[in-house]
Fold each of these.
Amino acid sequence: MRTFPRYLSTFRRMVNERGQQLRRLTFEELKDFPGDNTEVVTVDSRLATISVIIQPREADRLRVVVQGFIRARFLPGKHVALDGFYKRQDGTVNPMPEDEYYEFD
């Protein structure tokens, strides 16, 4: 018996794919990424949003977060899917620590 909603699994996969695409961009491409970067997507006939947040840290490091929201089907509230990483000017990519995800709820 399946207990995990299929739409939620699909949605999380979409957020993770956006993160993988962003990891392939250069530091300069990420730095110049457009400021308004929220898209509305449909997942299993349900509307959801996926936003990209890019924050400069030190002079040579960016924090990139992909944040998705989709309304819960039977309960009030929303499901959240997050992916995040740090990109340095030299091209290295480091995962974002788990505790930092709580800043984006």
Amino acid sequence: MIKLLPGELINIDINKCVSPENLTILATENDKYRLYETVNLDSFPGWNDFKGHNKLFKNETLIIIGKKGRPISFSKKEKWNLYDVYFVMYANKVYECFAYCIKKISDEQP
């Protein structure tokens, strides 16, 4: 898993909307994805874990502003870091997203 730091630019991988354990971690609608203000770390995976303001995206660039943590139902061992939730910002609004869905934009240009 990649290391994500505040200030880094990212994209979201819509193809990673379901985790390897078959848990839905990103809401999708056709070729777009929806991010929410909050992922409930106390109840995930459960029902109605995504709350607050939300927005439908398609190929936008976002910025990492910090790490929130990991759902309490997952071990703190490194193999579960794909379930770490990060704060991301777009147009001055903050959303939360699982690390598994995040693609870091490389500093190197082709």
Amino acid sequence: MVNRALWLGIMLPLIALSADSNSPASNSSGVNLVQAPEGANLITITLAVADDVGSTPPGYLMHRVSEPLTELTELPAAITESYTGKEFSAYEIATLLDGTRYLVVLNEEKSLKFLNRNESPMWYARLYRISAGNGTKPEVVREGLQLSGNDVTVPVELQSPGIGVTKVKKLHTEIGYNVNSTQNGKPQVYSGRGATLQVSGSQISQVGKLTLTVAVPEQMTVTPDTQVSLRFEPLTAGLPEHSASGKVTDILTLGSARFIVTAIEPDFSKATLAVVAGSLEETLKQQLQVGTQMPPFSQVELITRKTVTREDLLAMSKRAAPIVFVFGDLAPSGGRSPYGPGPGPGMSPTLPLPVADVAEQLALELEPKPLVVFVTRQIGLDFLYAELRNKTPGYLVLTDFADPLRTTFRSPQMNPGGWYGPPYAGAREPALRQLFNLPERTLSMAAFTAAGKVAYVKADVGAEFLSSLADVRGALKKLQ
């Protein structure tokens, strides 16, 4: 049995797409690509396979089939003879295009007892490689004792007809399997492979760099589920990147600009995009930039539970004091958060320093002291009810979401990982981040003059948090 899911992103010549402006582009599978309206701006991008194609953490299968493999009923005699008098199960992991087969044979090892929570069975596994050709002797490439739950992988080199503008002929990835559980005494085996093969290319304009990435599908032609992604990186330092992903027939939105894919070459060497609405230039104009005005807003302050508006902040900024916004989840007094992992991958990164320390460092050598405003989607209960009890700090803590009930409240260290509140809602919920046109998942900073004009903005300060604090102070010193 050939595992078709293995070839997701490995050997993928596409059927040529029609570029006739009078009819939608399509391939032999009947997938229609959206056509651009007359006069739309077309962008052609050359695509190439990434240098690290197939790279993946060793021993980790990034893509698995969703259904367990079917047990083989016939095996080469050389393998069957090795298991005479034993009960065993055999599964085909993969068959390469050159005919090479990979099989795994599992028999339960009952002579050894391994203590674990659920008394899971232990298997003795052999992973065989059988080269193409009659009479080829099976070769054991890996063997040993195995419990359920871990991946077993082997590296493979695959031949391709030439993918991307560089005509890549050899592809490196991993194939393997995972024993997930047992059913009726039989192991449930899932096969998989390493990283998806992707082609990508970029075009640089006066406003920034636009990158298109295409993930090849399982079939030998374009399918409705073929995945593409776009990323826009402004040339202006400090402005946030924009990204969008979806199916090949979807409209991809980057700020105010909307794109469609109108064509892809059969060998993945080139693709064409069309701008059907807006522009990247308009997207840049929407970003916070030095000299632009602070957007109007109305958010709940989590400590006082009062609503704070832009006008309130400007009124609080006494003696021409600047205002500094810090976007990120709040750390406790000990610095690194002890609360355990967040409830989902969409949560903003946690501040690497305690809130009070960040506010203090932002005020060093500045007079008047800036008004520091933290904007968060996650906050510790012990921070609110232990550190700040009967205290009025010199900074504000605004909830990022327009609806303060979307805020996540984390339990203290004695109950790691506990949290209270609804799941992270992502872009579905209006947020101050979105109003400021900042990314969803980064630590960000923005400094304003007392009049509400941008003096400093950086969309991602996570890797350079301490130096960014100094950069903010430097920008504000110039205003004094």
